[in-house]
Amino acid sequence: MMVPDSPAEALGSHAPSVRDTLIEVVRSVHGRFAEAHSVSRSRYGMGFGSQWRDLLDDADDELTKHGFQSHTLTPGGHEIPVVNDCLVYVWRVPDDPDAVSKFAASPTRQSGFAALPPPAMLFEPAFADDVESTEDDADTAETETMLEAVHDTMPLVLVMVWSTPRLLQSIEWAVADLDDAGKVKLRGQECIWEPELVAADVASDGESFDSGTPVQPTVEPRKQEGTDPDAR
User: Fold this and answer.
1) Parallel, antiparallel, or unpaired for β 156-164 and 86-92?
2) Biased composition, Basic and acidic residues: where in the chain (predicted)?
3) Burial status of residue 57 (CB atoms within 10 A of its CB: 0-12, 13-18, 19 or more)
4) DSSP reduced 3-state for 80
5) Residue 132 CA to chain centroid, in angstroms?
6) What are 153-203's pLDDT values in tens digits?
7) Per the confidence metrics, is the pTM higher than 0.70?
8) Domain ranges in the chain?
């Protein structure tokens, strides 16, 4: 099986729209679970960490709305969207330095690396805002034909969510490849979303501390209690 070098290559012409859709899904799920964690006032993050199933379901729901098919991972029964004959798995990365390499530790995730492409569809799925490319159509068609010809199982695009209850830190994606030892390696890893930095904007709103003359705030004398006749 030939593994694509990047998610853009794996997803073909659908990559930009799929990326935007997944970013919306992840931000929505994170917002819901962060709010629930705040309301619960729990000292523990187990509830926040349980969003994994919502990430899978919401991503599948959104992409199938646009006509893409789903694949059921066994034995867990999770529905995963299929785009351009590639599985798309959205995953919140746990707090473990070896989490990515151990991604395929469960039988259900292992099955994602042995999934066969679904039957060909009568009509090609598309997003409403997709813009047809006149420049890359030939290259995209050639890549898709090559992938169909040489691989017997579907590549897996792993969408990695890095977050805490206080902050959605980043969203990355890559093509996941499973080696002979059962360890996952990433190809074409790329950050597709991160929060905007506001520090520079805040600093630009005022003078630097090492220049200019500090302006003292105007302080009005406060009236003594009992001297204001309106307060009696």
Assistant:
1) parallel
2) 220-232
3) middle
4) strand
5) 25
6) 999 999 999 999 989 999 999 999 999 999 999 999 999 999 987 444 544
7) yes
8) 7-122+135-193
